[in-house]
Design brief:
Blueprint (H helix, E strand, L loop, with lengths): L10 H14 L4 H11 L3 H13 L5 H12 L5 H10 L4 H9 L3 H14 L8 H14 L4 H18 L1
Keywords: Cytoplasm
Protein name: Regulatory protein RecX
Pfam families: RecX_HTH1, RecX_HTH2, RecX_HTH3
């Protein structure tokens, strides 16, 4: 008789749960690992399920990271995208590759568009408006030089009028 406790979440059940999750949305291996572990699957079961999912190409962190950056790159900067991908359990080389596809010109274009779209929010003196706009774009994860360039373009017309 074995001293090991029975698997609270056997392989078949873990496999079905993983497929059900993936049928609803894409997940990284890190996210699936966390979800299966929380359900009570053993490390061995989790590893077997993830290995099979990767072999069947149902989970691919590199594709996930590229799609994530592509879908959110218009509203978030590279710094924020990196942070969110790390939080989702994507490995650093994959994050570097996916976020590396965002060049500074693309980020500047996105930051200018965001600043123009949200400009109505910033009331007050021009200096106060620039400060609020800077903070807004920085919270969205745009690097400082991109934010400064976006603010120059966004507030250039106001400065010409004065």
């Amino acid at each position: 008789m074995s001293d090991a406790p029975p698997d609270a979440y056997p392989y078949e059940r873990a496999w079905s749960y993983a497929l059900w999750l993936l049928g609803r949305q894409a997940y990284t291996t890190g996210q699936l690992r966390d979800k299966l572990t929380r359900k009570g699957a053993t490390e061995d079961t989790v590893t077997r399920v993830l290995t099979k999912l990767i072999d069947l190409k149902l989970v691919d962190d590199a594709l996930y990271a590229e799609a994530f950056v592509r879908s959110r790159g218009r509203t978030k900067g590279a710094l924020r995208l990196r942070q969110e991908l790390f939080r989702k359990g994507v490995a650093e080389p994959l994050v570097d590759k996916a976020v590396g596809n965002l060049d500074e010109a693309t980020q500047l274009e996105s930051a200018v568009a965001l600043a123009e779209k949200n400009r109505w929010r910033w009331k007050g003196e021009p200096r106060e408006q620039r400060s609020k706009a800077y903070a807004f774009l920085a919270r969205r994860g745009f690097p400082g030089d991109v934010v400064r360039g976006a603010l120059e373009q966004t507030f250039a017309a106001d400065e010409e009028d004065n």
